[in-house]
């Protein structure tokens, strides 16, 4: 292929597109990564598809409704990625439970809410949802 | 003292999935706020919750300061037979709140 002006432009824009993609992919903060590691142990964490329901925009960060449903999960952990300390809650479910739950949490600002679940077969699955927070909820 | 309110059905069919709603009146002081003199207000939250039905564990949860004031928690489980749903909340100061709801299978 001869390097014409047209080809050079095409290559350049392709390179830019490639470098932009990883930025959009989900990345958890260091503290949350540690918490996820502690939760998962040796098992590999995969992006999953169980239900995590959060509002897209939360006006008041002091009380943001969050619910999840991970049928068959033994354990579920909720993290608020952008809070001063990311831990929110963790749950262990017995055989009678359908491994769902709903609560209200505090979010310091716009950030990702992460749910990590250990399924019945021991696999670790993670789901993240972005929440826009108008007024943060960590006092101060 | 904190008070817990629980909404649970009184009766259920065998094997029915019932939803329980719980709410505790509690400040859930996060330990990160400061008072007027700039001193940190000590943390005081409900740090654990557990529910058992007929002696069998349904859900056990640990809460961090990121849970809102007046912690609300909703969960569901299948009712195998008539039994008592025993719920316990543990406060940072060591005190416990306990509530029991009987669900009758007709």
Quickly count the helices of chain B.
0
What are the secondary-structure elements of chain B, in order, as H or E?
EEEEEEEE
Globular, elongated, flat, extended or rod-shaped: what is the shape of chain A?
Answer: globular
Class by SSE composition of chain B: mainly beta
CATH architecture annotation name of chain A: Sandwich
Number of strands of chain A: 9
Would you state the CATH class of chain B? Mainly Beta
Distance between the termini of chain B: 36 Å
Query: What is the CATH superfamily classification of chain A?
Result: SoxY domain
Provide the residue-averaged pLDDT of chain B: 92
Shape estimate of chain B? elongated
CATH superfamily of chain B: Immunoglobulins
* Largest sheet, strands/sense/barrel of chain B: 5 strands, mixed
Under CATH, the topology of chain A can be stated as: Immunoglobulin-like
**Number of H- or I-type helical stretches of chain A:** 2
Largest sheet descriptor of chain A: 6 strands, mixed
Which band does the percent of strand residues of chain B land in?
A: over 45%
Order of helices and strands of chain A: HHEEEEEEEEE
Tell me about this structure.
The complex is a heterodimer of chains A (140) and B (106). Chain A contains two helices and nine strands; from the N terminus they run ααβββββββββ. Chain A is α+β, with helices and mostly antiparallel strands. With 106 residues, chain B is mainly beta. Chain B has one domain (3-32, 40-105): Immunoglobulins (Immunoglobulin-like), CATH 2.60.40. Chain B has strands at residues 3-7, 11-12, 16-25, 46-53, 56-63, 72-79, 83-91, 96-105. In chain B, the strands form two sheets. A five-stranded mixed beta sheet of chain B has the order 2-8-7-4-5, with no helix packed on it.
